[in-house]
Input
Amino acid sequence: MDKSDLAALEHDVAQETAACIARNEQRIAFLTEREEREAFLRKPVTQWTDAEWREFHRYENDARKWTRSW
Output
């Protein structure tokens, strides 16, 4: 194995490592978002903030628009 082969191998390893890190960051973001959403859904509606109510109504309206388009 000469220096050019070693450099190519190092480059491939670096690319694969970066891709793995990016995939793991996406998984972490997805799981964090899911945990936050589940925690929110367990929270009693009497404790929702105004911002949480606005977000709920925004999603509710989006869902209605989507189902009407079918």
Notes: The longest helix spans residues 3-42. The CA atoms of residues 26 and 32 lie 10 Å apart.
